[in-house]
Amino acid sequence: MNIVFATNNLHKIREIENYIDKRVCLKSLKDIGFIKEIPETSGTILGNAIQKARFLFDETGFDCFADDSGLEIEAINNRPGVDSAHFAGPQRSHSDNINKVLSEMLGCENRKALFKTVFALCLKGEIHVFEGIIEGTITNSIHGIDGFGYDPIFRPIGFKETFAEMPFELKTKISHRAIALEKLNFWLDVNILR
Ligand code: IMP
Question: Of 21, 52, 103, 143, which is least packed with CB atoms within 10 Å of its CB?
Fold first, then answer.
């Protein structure tokens, strides 16, 4: 079956294309020539994922899924959360966002954080949601150069490295997206593909 992934983020496409069930043919927005901006204005991670999948389905009629993710840091009231992409402003700069987190957390002992992803799958207009969460800590400074977003300051529980110091394959296997994807794969296997 064909499913369109509602993102233009190449990092995410790479993370997902190798792990989605092999019976699924993953298409990108580029593959289907979709160039409209997809709104994400609901104010929550769950709401945005649903809004994006619903919008793409309504516009194209294709079965599709969308994701929305965010970093929730306990000591700063679970921010940046749904505002993760533009935490430091509309320029959506990864390094500005990281610097804002590090400066808000200067001297903060509680470094607990989690990454959350919600996948909203829209099949024939019906929505199904899958959540992935990975817990970890925020480092005191930047470690590593790989990945994207907050990877250089997020160290998952049980690991010595930040996401940005890990081999790409390892991050891809353990990330919040991997956990949500495993649930999505299981659901597709049981309900659609078998
Ligand atoms: P999105 O809604 O999935 O695009 O994620 C929103 C923002 O959360 C991104 O722009 C990143 O700043 C951050 N983010 C999401 N997933 C990750 C990740 O795997 N590593 C680092 N940052 C992430």
Answer: 103
Question: How far is residue 101's CA from residue 194's CA, in Å, rounded to a whole number?
Answer: 45
Pocket of ligand 1 contains residue 68 by CB under 6 Å: yes
85 Cβ below 6 A of ligand 1:
yes
Alpha helices in 61-112 (DSSP H): 94-104
Q: Which ligand 1 atom is at minimum distance from the Cα of 92?
A: 10
Strand, helix or coil at 190? helix
148 C-beta closer than 6 A to ligand 1: yes
Taken in order 85, 182, 76, 108, is the CA torsion positive or negative? negative
Residue from 26, 68, 48 nearest 188 by CA: 26
pLDDT tens for residues 26-57? 999 999 999 999 999 999 999 999 999 999 99
Residue 175 CA from chain centroid, whole number: 9
Residues whose CB falls within 8 Å of the CB of residue 45, separated by 6 or more in sequence, listed in order: 68, 69, 70, 81, 82, 116, 117, 118
Alpha helices in the chain (DSSP H): 10-17, 45-60, 94-104, 168-174, 176-188
Flag whether the pTM goes above 0.90: yes
Q: From start to end of the chain, where are the E strands?
A: 2-5, 25-28, 64-73, 79-80, 112-123, 126-138, 154-156
